[in-house]
């Protein structure tokens, strides 16, 4: 028996190609926007606030919550938050540029049919490296401030604090004082640089 080798696999009988009519193809709809739920402890349990795109309207948020999460909405209030004027560059880049106003944010507050209570925040944040996040944010802020045009007019506070700590250690006796050449490990104990003694001069004479 001779086997027939097929270079290309056979297509299944129920395969629908991309050229098929739209009604015969399986359609999958995914959202192309981002919605952020805001923690609002000052609102009643039946109210929730979201940051939505600027082109989002009240019917969109109502339909989104009903179809995706099954949450019924009774009323919706929306307003646009205008951002303050700044000189920082967009997209988180370092440096300063011309005066500009960042893009505004749209906020919607909905009244739901069922109450929603925020879960209590976790007490231990070691799993999410919260300390590293704040350290990185502080470092980025310091780097941005050091590269600003006003950085040259400000005193070097970090260097001043380090010098003050070193001076306190030396005055308290915790750290011994050494000349700079000894701290750097230099050796100036050379015979050629020594001053001749008086006895050696008299013996030579």
UniProtKB/TrEMBL annotation:
It is found in: Mitochondrion. Pfam families: Ribosomal_L23. Its main location: mitochondrion. One of its GO terms (molecular function) is structural constituent of ribosome. InterPro entries: Nucleotide-bd_a/b_plait_sf, Ribosomal_uL23-like, Ribosomal_uL23/eL15/eS24_sf. Signal peptide: none annotated. One of its GO terms (cellular component) is mitochondrial large ribosomal subunit. Transmembrane segments: none annotated. Gene3D superfamilies: 3.30.70.330. Residues 140-165 are annotated as: Disordered. Belongs to the universal ribosomal protein uL23 family. Component of the mitochondrial ribosome (mitoribosome), a dedicated translation machinery responsible for the synthesis of mitochondrial genome-encoded proteins, including at least some of the essential transmembrane subunits of the mitochondrial respiratory chain. The mitoribosomes are attached to the mitochondrial inner membrane and translation products are cotranslationally integrated into the membrane. This is Large ribosomal subunit protein uL23m. It comes from Aspergillus homomorphus (strain CBS 101889).
């Amino acid at each position: 028996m001779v086997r027939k080798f097929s270079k290309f696999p056979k297509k299944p009988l129920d395969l629908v190609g991309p050229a098929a009519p739209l009604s015969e193809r399986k359609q999958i709809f995914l959202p192309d926007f981002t919605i952020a739920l805001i923690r609002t402890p000052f609102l009643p349990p039946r109210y929730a606030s979201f940051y939505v795109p600027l082109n989002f309207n009240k019917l969109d948020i109502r339909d989104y919550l009903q179809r995706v999460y099954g949450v019924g909405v009774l009323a919706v209030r929306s307003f646009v938050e205008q951002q303050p004027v700044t000189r920082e560059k967009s997209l988180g880049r370092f440096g300063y540029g011309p005066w500009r106003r960042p893009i505004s944010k749209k906020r919607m507050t909905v009244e739901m049919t069922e109450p929603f209570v925020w879960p209590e925040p976790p007490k231990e944040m070691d799993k999410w490296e919260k300390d590293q996040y704040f350290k990185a944010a502080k470092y980025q802020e310091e780097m941005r401030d050091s590269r600003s045009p006003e950085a040259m007019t400000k005193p070097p506070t970090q260097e001043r604090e380090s010098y003050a700590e070193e001076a306190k250690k030396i005055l308290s006796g915790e750290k011994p004082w050494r000349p700079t050449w000894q701290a750097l490990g230099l050796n100036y104990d050379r015979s050629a640089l020594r001053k001749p003694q008086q006895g050696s001069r008299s013996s030579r004479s």
